[in-house]
Amino acid sequence: MKNLFIARAFPKTSAFEDKLACQTTLDLEEKAGFRPFFPKPFPKPTRFWERLVLKVFVFLLVLSAAVGPAFAFEIGDLHSGLSNLSAEMAKALPFNSGIGLNWSDAYVGKLFPSVPPHFGVGGSFGFTTMDLKTIENLSKVLGYDMPFGAPRLYFPAYTAEARLGGFFLPFDIGLKFGMLPQTKLWGTSTKMNYLLLGAGLRYAILDGKSRTLLPNISIGLGFNYLKGGLSSSVNQAVNIGVNGASDQITLEKPDVALSWSSKSLELTMQISKNILLITPYLGFGASYSWSEVGYDADATVRYNGRAITPGDIIAIGNELGGISLGDGGLSSSKKDSAFGLRGFGGISLDLMVLHLDMTGLFNFFDKNYGAQIGFRVQL
C-alpha cells in the first residue's frame, strides 16, 4: 500500500508511466478487497446511433445549463390573447344574440284595425357556437384549461318573446328577454352566465296575409344586447414572466373570469309562405356591433416570491400596457367593433293558434352555426 500512496502523490514524467501507475493502483486496490470509488470509463461508442444519441444528450445538457429560468407564459401572451379574443368575439357575439324572435311568419299582421287582432307570445331555446381556441389561448395564460375538449363552445340560450301587430300600417314589433344566472355547467367546475335583451320592428313590403297566393316579405331593424361570461377557480399557482422573463408574477390559486358584452344593430329581410300546416321561411341579417371583452384574476399576487409592492408595479412599467395589476389580482378589457352577416331559416308546424318553429342559423363571417326550437301562441 506504500507504493499506492507514492503513485497517487507524485506525477510521472511520461504518459506511459502515468498510465502504468494508474493501472498498478487499481490492481493493488482490487487485491486488497477495496472497490474503487470511481467507475471505469465508458466504453467508446462503436455504432453510429450510439454516437448520435450521446451527442444529442451532451447538447441538451449544455443547452439546459446555458439558458436561464423559463416560464410557460409571459405578460405579452396576455396582451395577444386578449386582442385575439376581442377580434373573434366582435364577430361572434352579434350572432349569439340572434337567438329568439326568429318566427316563421315574416309578418304577423295588424293589431288594429283587424279581426281578430294579430299578436303572439311564446319562447325559444337553442344554442350558437363560438370558436374555443381563442378563449383557451387566453384562459391558459391565467392557469385555466377549458374542460370542453372540442374546437367550439356551444353557447346555450333561451328567450321569452312576444310580437305585436301594427296600427293601420303593415308592421309588427317584437321583444325578447333571456337570462341565465351564474350556473355551474354539468360535469365541470366552470360557471356560465348571460343576459339577452332584444327588440325589433318589421315592415311588410309584401303582405301575403291579405293576398292568399303571395308570400310575406318583410324588412326590419333590430337591436340586441348580450352580456355573459365564464368563470372558474384554479387550484394551483400561476407564474407569468415579466421584464423579458427575468422576473415573474405569481398568482396564488386565482379565481379566473372571462366576460363579454355586445350591443348590435341589425337590418333583416325575411320571406315566408304558409302551406297548409307548415310555413317554410328564410331570412338574412346584416349587423354592426360594439363589443367589449375582458378578464379578471382575483388572487394574492407575488413578485419574485414575495408580496408585490407599488415599486414592483412601477418596475414592470410599460409591459403592463392596459393591465390593471395590484396585490389582489390583475384584470384588463378591450373594446372592438365589427360587421356581421347571418342567415336563418327553417320550417314551422302550424296547428290553429299553436306554432312550433325549427330554425337553423349560420354566421357567414366566422362559419359558426346554431339552432333553436321555438313555440308560440299566435292570432
In short:
The protein has helices at 2-9, 15-31, 48-66, 75-96, 132-141, 310-316; strands at 110-112, 119-131, 152-167, 171-184, 191-206, 216-233, 238-242, 247-272, 278-303, 306-307, 324-326, 329-351, 354-363, 369-378. The protein is of the alpha+beta class. It folds into two domains: 2-66, no CATH class; 75-378, Lipocalin.
What's the CATH C level of the largest domain?
Mainly Beta
What is the CATH-assigned architecture of the largest domain? Beta Barrel
Number of helices: 6
| Unreliable stretches | 1-13, 34-43, 52-71
Order of helices and strands: HHHHEEHEEEEEEEEHEEEE
> Biggest sheet, strands in spatial order?
2-3-4-5-6-8-9-12-13-14
Number of strands: 14
* Average predicted local confidence, pLDDT: 82
CATH topology of the largest domain: Lipocalin
